Amino acid sequence: MAIDVKIPPMGESITSGVLAKWHVADGTIVKKDQPLFELETDKITSEGTAEADGKLTIKVAAGTDVKIGEVVATIDETATAGASVPAASSQKLEVENQKSGDVVASPAVRRLAAETGIDPATVTGTGKAGRVTKGDMLAASVSKPPFAAPAPAATAPVAAPSVASAKERQTRTKMSKLRQTIAKRLVSAQHEAAMLTTFNEVDMSAVMELRKKYQDDFVKKHGVKLGFMSFFTKAVVHALREVPGVNATIDGDTVVQNHYYDISMAVSTDKGLMVPVIRGCDTLDMAGIEKAIAETAKKAREGKIGLDDLSGGVFTITNGGIFGSMLSTPILNAPQSAILGLHAINERPIALNGQVVIRPMMYLALSYDHRLVDGKEAVTFLVKVKQAIEDPARLLIGA
Questions:
Q1: What's 195-397's CATH class?
Q2: Distance in angstroms (rounded) separating the CA atoms of residues 144 and 362
Q3: 305 within 8 A of 270, measured Cβ to Cβ
């Protein structure tokens, strides 16, 4: 009996996508729940899996535009695991279908295996059915040094190479649906909003001392590290309450005032920037925020983010500091009216109580829609964030 492999539904607003790649070759014997292909849409990237064991027959080539519900392959359940695989594809399958035990590795895991030299079969998987995840590979790589490049063999001098052809000098790749949408949204935000950015700097001493003092106890109790993002999330919620004008959006000629605190967190992935939402940040404690951020970031990097994860945020936090950014002007995440940019922490001399002292300082950047938020509100909001970080006790008493 042959089972149709169809493009799965992605949500009401998604009707088509691009079948970006096949993870297995035509004629492969596949297992139930094994990843078969990668689908790119204008909002998310996801994987299609096998619904049964059997032999796969591919009907649609990689790179083809497909519609939701379209049949792209079939699985013959009557085929056995001993069925032959086309000889031409055996070498390709050896690379593409790396496994951890009986569980097929995801593209992210295969890429990390190639980069680190770690065999996924030697890593204990924490995913579904013992599947090795990207997080498992990253954790395993911490204790293992990266590939050591082999010493180059002595060779005789050779003549200088000729100028490379145009084809060798460039590689042209079609922009993914997700990247196209990101580009359109960023350009649209700049064209439609009267965007302005205000800056401030914050002394991170108090937060760093708190993390150092309570980190071990926090990890033992909650199983997650106490990071900077939970402090800034709480500070943002505090500032939104103090300056509610920032927690609003423009809908045509109407101002929509939000009375909830779902905060969007920018996450960098291999497919591009995604901004999943952490719900109810005003009701979560520090541990709850840290767990939610970790789980959401993991889903984003593994390509498991859904449409519901990306919608409904009222304010965005983006942290370019993890990449070493000193200062930037973040672009609004429409239809939101403001976004906070965090940057690298660097020790700098500052004047404190008439003396020059060295402190771990971070630049903050608040970009906002000047059509809705006035300069006074924006500056006040940023000052409230600064005060909450420099004196975290304010978050407890609401000052």
A1: alpha beta
A2: 32
A3: no
Please give the C-alpha separations between residue 137 and each of 82, 108, 112, 224, 291, in angstroms, as whole numbers.
30, 9, 7, 18, 20
Q: Are the beta carbons of 327 and 343 closer than 8 angstroms?
A: yes
CATH 3.30.559.10 positions along the chain are 195-397
In order along its 399 residues, the chain shows pLDDT tens digits of: 788 888 887 765 677 788 888 888 888 898 888 888 888 776 667 788 888 888 888 988 887 888 888 888 988 888 764 554 444 444 444 444 444 444 456 666 776 677 677 777 777 777 666 777 766 776 676 555 544 444 555 555 555 555 556 667 788 777 776 667 767 777 877 777 889 999 999 999 999 999 999 999 999 999 999 999 999 999 999 999 999 999 999 988 899 999 999 999 998 877 777 889 999 999 999 999 999 999 988 888 787 877 788 889 999 999 998 889 999 999 998 889 999 999 999 999 999 999 999 999 999 999 999 999 999 999 999 999 999 999 998 887 766
374 as an active site residue: the answer is yes
- Residues carrying CATH 2.40.50.100, the chain: 1-97
Active-site residue identified among 4, 308, 374, 391: 374
Helical pair 205-222 and 286-301, crossing angle rounded to 10 deg: 80
3-class secondary structure, 26: coil
Domain 98-142 = CATH 3.40.50.720: no
Nearest to 331 by CA among 383, 375, 362, 369: 369
CATH number of 1-97: 2.40.50.100
| Long-range contact pairs involving 253-257 (C-beta distance under 8 Å, separation at least 24) | 255/372
> Any idea of the CA torsion for 327, 395, 356, 359, to the nearest 10 degrees?
-50
238 is catalytic: no
Output the pTM of the full model: 0.62
Start-end ranges of CATH 4.10.320.10 in the chain? 98-142
The answer to whether 78 and 106 are in contact (CB under 8 A) is: no
Query: Three-state SS for 103?
Result: strand
